[in-house]
Amino acid sequence: MQDVAIQLPDKVRDVIGRLTGAGFEAYAVGGCVRDSILGRTPEDWDITTSASPSEVKGLFSKTIDTGIQHGTVTVMCGGEGFEVTTYRIDGEYKDKRHPKEVVFTSNLLEDLKRRDFTINAMAYNAQEGLVDVFGGLSDLQEGRIRCVGSPQARFTEDALRMLRAVRFAAQLGFAIEEETEQAITPLAGNLRDISAERIQAELVKLLVSAHPEEMRTVYETGMSQVFLPEFDRMMETPQNNCHHIYNVGDHTLVALQNIPCDKILRLTMLLHDVAKPECQVMDGDGIYHFYGHPAKGAVMAGQILRRLKFDNDTIDRVASLVACHDELPTLREAPVRRAIHRIGLRQFPDLFAVKRADALAKSPHRQEEKLAYIDKFERMYQEIMDRQQCLTREDLAVTGKDLIRIGIEPGKKMGELLEYLLQCVLECPEQNTPEQLIRLAEQKRDGNALA
Ligand code: ATP
Ligand code: MG
Q: Which residues pair with residue 46 across a beta bridge?
């Protein structure tokens, strides 16, 4: 028992109190204990108890059978749900990911033993204080990720724990203890047996953490080779040109550190140059070029994110940003409006963050100029938005219906004509009036447009 006081939320205290009042043991456990000691706000409060699931259900008026076969019942308390899980021992692991059987136990120690890392294997309640049998507190204080028990055995039981080790290191800014880290490489191949969904969840947490550059550890331990081999190729692709001081992978790691911790933005930075290894060419002076890598990269990003079972919206947004990350319109009004239309409004303002992070991860060569360009591009974009200028067909002062009235038939021709009118308006916004546009449409129809 350690002298650590944690301020449990009232509702958590009530749930624990109801269980202990009925003669059972109950503790807050895992991530919430870890985060409380660190002074971080826990995402959720998990409770572990000696009561069986049916005993838990008998004590509370409103419960949900969340994972009843694993002993988890969600107790509803004032509109909030708390997962209450019966102490359990995970049986033998049959396929490196799912325990064959779950055995309930009345022994807290057994429940703590099945947990992945010492910092995640502490329990707390107000009566007993902190229960820390594996040195979790000192590992927390010294910033260490260490397996409970033999790392080799624990990673063999569940291969996802290897990626979780790096994820926690990235979130907490901790180091992975030596024996734990060394156990990863020989077992990294077992990640092949882990579902894409579970890998995705850990990868996203790692990427949106304070230390996304921990992706380097994912590479160095041999894990990315298994689920993201494209990243290994980036880490092994030099960029011999004046714009770069890093290889593609190291550039990517620095770019990740330079963008806000948002899932879409971090995934975009991870993949923005993913096609560079495939697009690499060397000119007569030995300088490398990567022509076409944004378009090719968008296709690859789509394939990779689909393989990792991301949702369509995420795939679409990331691939679109990868496709346009190198767009460099001339900074005059009409070309900027045309660029916004071509790139798609949805990519703004994210594109500016992407461009800045990219520029900051390049060589000092003309860096200030590149950053000033992005600033000016963004200012011009903002002015165009503030003035609510027409940027899409929907913003035109005429619709298809108006064009039908002057004899244009719906279909391909109509689409082309609307696009033509939009191009005229992007060039010259004053033309966006019904009269002007009908006149332009009639001219075009009669084949004497000036364009
Ligand atoms: P967060 O929710 O902040 O991401 P967490 O520590 O709560 O972090 P969860 O994945 O929610 O992580 O798991 C809750 C607890 O369950 C962990 O703290 C750990 O004790 C245990 N746990 C989760 N996954 C595993 C695993 N694969 N192997 C062993 N124990 C695990
Ligand atoms: Mg959690």
A: 83
161 lines ligand 1 (CB under 6 A): yes
Residues 302, 319 contacting (CB under 8 angstroms): yes
Rounded Cα gap, residues 110 and 103, in angstroms? 10
157 lines ligand 1 (CB under 6 A): no
3-state helix, strand, coil in the chain (%, to 5): 55, 10, 35
Please state, in angstroms and rounded to a whole number, the distance separating the CA atoms of residues 65 and 165: 29
Residue 371 CA to residue 373 CA, distance in Å, equals: 5
Structural contact between residues 269 and 301, judged by C-beta atoms closer than 8 angstroms = no
pTM of the full structure: 0.94
pLDDT range class, residue 240, cuts 50, 70, 90: confident
Question: For residues 387 and 198, what is the distance between their CA atoms, to the nearest angstrom?
Answer: 45
Check if the beta carbon of residue 148 is closer than 8 Å to that of residue 111.
no
The predicted model gives 201-212 an average pLDDT of: 98
CA 265 to centroid of ligand 2, rounded, Å? 23
Q: Which residue's alpha carbon is at the smallest distance from atom 6 of ligand 1?
A: 31
Contact in structure between 26 and 20 (CB atoms under 8 Å): yes
Torsion of CA 115, 119, 121, 123, to 10 degrees: -150
Please give the number of the atom of ligand 1 that sits closest to the Cα of 161: 27
Give the orientation angle of helix 263-271 with respect to helix 312-324, to 10 degrees.
50
Q: Are 177 and 166 in contact (CB under 8 A)?
A: no
Count CB atoms within 10 A of the CB of residue 42. 18
Cα angle vertex 369, ends 387, 381, to 5°? 15
The pair of structure tokens assigned to 234 is 């980036």
Token output for 383: 């002015």
Query: Which ligand 1 atom lies nearest to the CA of residue 167?
Result: 4
Q: How far is ligand 1, taken at its centre, from the CA of residue 183, in Å?
A: 20
In this structure, are residues 345 and 381 in contact, taking their beta carbons and an 8 Å threshold? no
Lowest-confidence range among 62-76, 80-94, 381-395?
80-94
Q: Report the alpha-carbon distance of residue 240 to residue 282 in Å, rounded.
A: 9
Write the pLDDT tens digit of every residue in 40-74.
Answer: 999 999 999 999 999 999 999 999 999 999 999 99
pLDDT at 200 over 70: yes
Phi, psi (5° rounding) for residue 39? 80, 15
pLDDT confidence of residue 101:
78
The structure tokens listed for 411 are 């279909």
93: pLDDT strictly greater than 70 = no
Residue 159 burial (CB count, 10 A): 26
